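Notes, p. 3: input format for complexes.
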Amino acid sequence: MQLGLTGRVALVTGASKGLGLGIAKALAAEGASVAISSRSLERAQAAAAAIPQGAFATHHDARDVEAVPRLVAEVTDALGPIEIAVLNSGGPPAATDGAGSLAHEQWREAYELLLLGQLALVEAVLPGMRERGWGRIVSISSLVVREPSSVLVLSSAHRAGLLAALKTIASESARDGVTVNTLLPGLIDTDRVRELGSNTPMRLAAIPAGRLGTVEELAAAAAFLCSEPAAYITGTALAVDGGAARSI
Ligand SMILES: NC(=O)c1ccc[n+]([C@@H]2O[C@H](COP(=O)([O-])OP(=O)(O)OC[C@H]3O[C@@H](n4cnc5c(N)ncnc54)[C@H](OP(=O)(O)O)[C@@H]3O)[C@@H](O)[C@H]2O)c1
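Output follows (248 residues plus NAP):
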């Protein structure tokens, strides 16, 4: 299948490692001109150097809504108008003492990271995509949106809010050739999963596929949602979870 991504300008945020970097690599391998960002310019540059086709690297903290115009302008100056935006960042802290144990400040920070900051980027790139009649927005969310987790309550709660907002935005922009979709990773083999200690034998046994997903498997789904053949898929949330979701 031809994904039709050659020459498309893509920005992947939170891409110095893990899922973001994997998606950037997949898009670059399909011929897209890729920009990546993370909180550290040095880490983003090192990651860009690991992409065989190369990538433009810059710094951006997903919580910093004031910096979004600068991010978009830098990428546009370097590569051209952003046609594909992959919304990604690090995840919030775990609520190891239960959902009711978090400070209000932690709720506020997670809201900025997972909802407000991502929405600010969508607002910045969407008008241009709609004017040009083509665009792809893919949000990297989590399966805990569909099946809430007490330990990851910050993630479940705020990502559900973003998912609802993106559903509306998808319907508003569908006639302009812009699709807006969400990926729901289950357990994919990255540093975050190791840091959260989620890769225990018990957790793995609960996954029908019997293993963690690979970054490449998640990235392939993202690249497809960014592609030309995915033009009629919008407002949807796709689990990449080895069958872990129990709901239908
Ligand atoms: N892996 C999974 O199985 C899984 C499952 C469900 C959901 N998710 C979610 O998917 C996202 C990516 O996960 P991952 O496993 O790839 O995580 P990861 O391995 O920890 O990588 C996170 C990436 O995001 C960047 N980052 C962290 N905080 C940031 C911020 N405030 N602003 C911008 N960039 C930031 C990091 O780079 P810098 O440190 O250089 O900024 C890094 O490149 C996370 O939100 C995670 O919660 C992952």
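The chain is about 40% helix and 15% strand.
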